Amino acid sequence: MGWFDTEEKDVFDKLDDINYIPVIASLITFAKPKNFINGKAITFFQKNSIFKYNKHLVNPFHTQKLYEELFDSGSLLPNALVFADSGGLQELLLKRLIKSPEEILKWQEKYCDIGFALDKIPFKTDTGFNVGWTFDAVDFKKHAETTRERILRALKVRTKWKSFKYYAIIQGTKYEEYKTWKDIINQPGVDGWCCKSPTNSPANLAETIIFVLENLDKPVHFLGIGQLTKSIILYYAKRYYKHPFSFDSSSYDTGAQFRRYNLPFYFNGMKSVKKDSNGKYDIKNFGKFCFCPACQVMSEIINNPEAERYLGYLVSLHNVAQNISVFEYLNNIYKDGDKLREFVKCYFKENTAHKLLEVFDYIDDANKHGHKEAKKKWKHLFTTHTKTTKQGILF
Ligand SMILES: [Zn+2]
Questions:
Q1: Strands across the sheet with 133-135, in order?
Q2: What three-state secondary structure class fits 114?
Q3: Is the pTM of this model over 0.90?
Q4: Ligand 1 center to 268 CA (angstroms)
Q5: 32 Cβ contact list (under 8 Å, min separation 6)
Q6: Full residue range of the structural domain in which residue 216 is found
Q7: Chain centroid to CA 83: how far?
Q8: Residue at 341 is within a domain
Q9: What is the Å distance from ligand 1's center to 242 Cα?
Q10: If you average pLDDT over every residue of the chain, what do you get?
């Protein structure tokens, strides 16, 4: 190291073995100095944040202008690891592309470290009373081919290799579909993969991971891993995969949306912070039962007239802090399968714990005997699949 060291650092050196990537959701609307409390930002991604965490995911299609302003202001944490979405979902919602694959790649190269390729999502939106997503089995391969063309177009204008990594998204609802899609879109120049689960069932996510273990050989990012019943599956399967895992989640943001507060002493317990009949908040002493910096600030301002403006964002920030502390703990124990099983037994309700442990067994079996045999044996874990799923469940 030194002034003569001009060797650029590789983005992959910033990845840990397993990486929790909170999505920058509504907190970004609160990142400007006019919203600071005593000079501190109620975010986790700025130099003066009251609670700091140096990894995040930005969705340029929801927050492009705000993120560009934040970036240009120089207030983002240095040495952050930034993931950026591509906007494939926006195409589905708006029925047209807002930006070309080339424009998206150029934006990602400038503002982030790891960008996801713009895919053509193999789902249809239904309109009418029953709005939801329908898997497009008929045109599945055609969508994969369109996706491949977009990846090729983006890779042609790519100029950064070490300081920017490009991940392609694998679509589908089960093992065989993931494989078909991946074989069609695979290109030299794809540095990593994104995968996701078609439902909230841990067994479906396990099948996705078994596909990863058997077919991929690069870092993998898992999209939309909102609940601990899903992230715990990633931690268990990691022993069988040598490259880094990362996963994003925006569930902490229910703080800003609904004031949902993760109880510090019980991760799965949530409480909505409300006002009582006297117009006072039903919880006032956050700073006494939670040691996180967000709760200290909440206690300080709870009786001030402007508390209302800050409370939801502070609750979100507390939720991020809670997630980070649970995942930091899991980072310590995940290599020891017995400890992870013990954690599941202590942490979840008996029924849920039992199901999760069976999913662990399914992963072990797949590793020993292959995906087909394991799925046959653990068939009861898979609930029958409805073809139409609500948006919230899919993404
Ligand atoms: Zn707290």
A1: 123-125, 133-135, 388-389
A2: strand
A3: yes
A4: 15
A5: none
A6: 85-249+336-394
A7: 10
A8: yes
A9: 34
A10: 90
